[in-house]
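@channel anyone free to eyeball this complex?
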Amino acid sequence: MLSFRGGIHPPGMKHLVRDRAIVDMPLVPLYRVLVQQHIGAPAKPLVKAGDTVKRGQMLSEPLGFVSASVHAPTSGKVRGVENCINPVTGLGSPCVVIEADGEDAWAEGIPFDVDPFSMDGSELISRIRSSGIVGMGGATFPSHVKLSPPRDKPIDAFIVNGVECEPYLGADHRLMLEEPQRIVLGARLVMHILGLSVAVVAIEANKLDAVEVMRKNAPGSIRVEVLDVKYPQGAEKQLIKAILDREVPPGGLPMDVGALVHNAGTCAAIWDACSRGIPLIERVTSVTGSGIREPKNIRVRVGTPLRDVIDFCGGLQEDASKVIFGGPMMGIAQYSMDVPVTKGTSGILVLRSREVDRSSYTSCISCGRCVDACPMGLLPNVLSRLGERSMWEDALEYNLMDCIECGSCAYVCPAYRPIVHFIKHMKALAREASAKKRQAV
Amino acid sequence: MLDAVFVIGGVGFLAALVLGIAAVTFAVKPDPKEAEVLDLLPGANCGACGYAGCAAFAHALVQDPDTPMACTAVDADTAQRISSLLGRELDVAGPMVASVRCMGSKDSAGSRFSYVGPMDCRAAQLVAGGYKACGYGCLGLGTCEAVCPFDAIHMGADGLPEVVLERCTGCGTCVDACPRGIIRLVPKDALVELRCVSLDSPKVMKGACDIGCIKCMLCVNVCPFDAIDVLDNGGPPVIDQDKCHRCSLCVDVCPRGVIDIYRVPQKVRIVEDRCIGCSICDQVCPFDAISGEPKGVYVVDLDRCRGCGLCVDKCPKDAIVRVGDA
Amino acid sequence: MHIFLHYVLLVVGSALVNNFVLHRFLGICPFLGVSKSTDTAVGMGMAVIFVMTLASFVVWLINYYLLLPYGLVYLQTIVFILVIASLVQLVEMIIQRVSPPLYQALGIYLPLITTNCAVLGVAILNIQLKYDLLEACVFALGASVGFGLALVIFSGMRENLELSDVPGAFKGTPIALITAGILSLAFMGFSGLVK
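replying in thread with the prediction:
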């Protein structure tokens, strides 16, 4: 089995939740549904204070093609469109605040039951779009866009991403074990839309039980590939390299090499949306880490405040000091307990004080460990030195924009250098400069 | 002897011929305007403008219409002539320096979370909008110090930057680099500044910082020169440095101590033999600090005088000077 | 074959073994002044190759056909400098026309090639070592290529030094000089290459 260059082997830490079956998180009194839970143009809120909403009702409509809608996670009354903290940016963002009425009544018409295989591709894509489906591996890219490649870039290979390479996380693992049919049917739907006859489900070798279950549930047209355990195998480009031995060109997208990757959870959501009309209003999330008293895999509604999730999972340990949305490698640390769960929250990781490294960084010693580790073949040592001096123009020549920000370099650096942060800093400066240039023109 | 002359002369002549031909073949037409602008510039090659010498600055001024009038060594008249030569407006404001508008030191302003990462304010701003409880205050990681080409701004022990006025040329690099827009350029002789830019409501701001502006507007009301403007963005009032007479009344009246005075201006006195008793000074003085009989010699009450210097400007006989001057 | 080897050894000798900058310590001024960036170093290297080779050619002719026959060898220094200065002027004009950015980047160091002791040095060495015309040109070419090589290598190192945490007291010229010394030591490894 081919793999990708570089990569690291952090401890898996999946034992905390790997054997915990998915539990449904009960309803909470207040939901904060962020209007922007996707990459792309913001969405326009359709409701206002005082409106009554039902579960699954559209709350905002997408503006433009690369945009996505959000839907009400439960029934209740809209308290208003307020400013809430977005867990990805840490900044205030508009969100629809819903006071739940406890009925959890569905919006009219959903759920229904149809055979989506009888519908044609464009109909299905339209349904996926209006259901607000976005990439649930964490990137939250609108799925209908991925399924509509331009005519000159046809897709000939589809991979279901069941890799879940981030340490601590186990949501996709449990989903594959407990609800394989939803994933398989969703994958078959994607194949139907793209007109493909085969697909691959990629699973890492630390989830052999899931491999067995998926193999049992998949038809002959879908084969399951077992990959060596290495971070970041679950990253799109690395997955395409390992399974298809194709390299996405610098600055390019998977469609440039005819490939498409969808997270396993996204496939399940696609099935729900197309066969039953259920929009994306909940997801499976691993609440884990030694800082939470009762680690669990929960099925949680989008918009549930962090505070409530933590209460449901037994509360924090005394010395819990860091809460991360996502995994320890690419997740975002949170500073407020009111921040809501979003479509892309693959995990909520709580770390204790002694597990958090606060070392200040020193000079790069040119040891080269980061160069070995980088899955994109970049020179993180040079990029970190350029970043320290904010020399973004020189960094562009070192393929600054091709960094996938996986964190492998920072993980191995003996000088504790925050390399990914340096890179993000330079990317921000570069974007600012090109925005200024566009303005001037 | 003659041989030597012929040889050197001959070689020289040949060289000159070759160079002459080359000069025509490889001629590059320099812009004559550059030479004219260069003539008007001081020619000190001090680099304050940020360019490598006056020739480079002249070149930039002529070739790039966006080049600001960064030369701090020309007087207004010369600047005007350069302006007409270039056929465009140059804003000449006299020497400017950086002014840091935040007093949220380590002791006064708290943090929302502990930050670990690059020691650069712009990089820190990427993490949830910055670790400071106040979303507008100084992050104190020294980006301004790092980018300053003149080594004219340094981070103090309290976590706030301090401008070294003697070295600051007003180039504006720190102004652009600060991710929170805390630094602005003010005239070099400005003495008073309101050092807060928080757009938060007073309630929110008080929760984040002990010293920030609570927008009580006392300063705006007390200013006798109407030099403090209220902005419509909900932010603190801003001192109009062109109108400010540095009388420091606002400094005294501010309940938070967020209006800073660099140094108290000197009081004035009236030179007896020049005073003609016209009483203009008495009329203009906002603090009622001058008294006297018309046609007689006027006198300044030093207890009331605040050194605003309005009388100095208005006196038709230049009879009022700063205490300590001749 | 024997002849060819003779010229190869000449080039290797002047470029590597007795490198003009790192072994003979000539031309230090542009070496330190233009080596801040590899782009300008390459430009300067090309300019020096042109000037050195052509100057050596012209100067050799003048020495053996003008100065020697008329017993005016004592005019060597003046005439050599005259030729070199004219050539540099020529190169300056060409560069200003062909590549204005390079002209700006080289700045004052372009006319300083005139006073570059390496150029005068190679001219005089050609006479001292009694080379014939071809040998003189090959020697000058090797010397200038070696100069350019040292310049480019050093500029690469300096660009890297820019990104390193050099202690305050050493920042800038001090660490550059130390590096040049170490580079010189490294080039000593070539001695013994040519017997």
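from a first look: The CA atoms of residues 100 and 190 of chain B lie 13 Å apart.
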